[in-house]
Specification:
This protein is α+β, with helices and mostly antiparallel strands. Helices cover 19% and strands 28% of the residues. A hairpin with a 2-residue loop joins β4 and β5.
Length: 190
Amino acid sequence: MEKHQVHHMEADWLPPVAALACFEPPTGAHLAAALHARPEEKRARYGFRVGGLGLLIDPDAGSEVLPIPAVAILPGAPPGFAGLINMRGNLAPLYDLRVLLGLSPPQAGTQPLALVLGQGDDVVGIIIEGNPTALTSLAPLPAFPTLPGTLEKYVPTGYTQDGAIWLEFDHHAFFGDTCGNMKPDTIRHA
């Protein structure tokens, strides 16, 4: 009797391609397929905060936010290199931008999270303050703010939304130039 019930349930299932064709994403969901299906909808950008600074996530970079996992701290690592985290069996460097840029400490009550950008050899983790913010109505900045010197050349433009400043952040170039010597194989162990 159990075999008959299982067989009956399988017969009611749609093939995966048909099931996906019927899928309607929930309102506010930002799925790549949904964006291509509805070109009239404006794609949201996402920004994160570090030391009071608002930075935009590259829309073409894969990204993931998670609670800060166990961090393997490397002896002799320079300030700003928090250590290595395990991303599904692959090691990823985790950096504290607040320390690298000399920014203020996080606000009290702010939960630190790990923002992981990129994939494969280009993956990098950043400690951020709270979840990223969806930004749908960014307007160009009328005047550019003063930035930490180590960040200036990696911020080509800026925007504002609801009185907050959000800066375009070239994380590929920043971590390649600024943190190239902070890779696990280049850090001298104490």
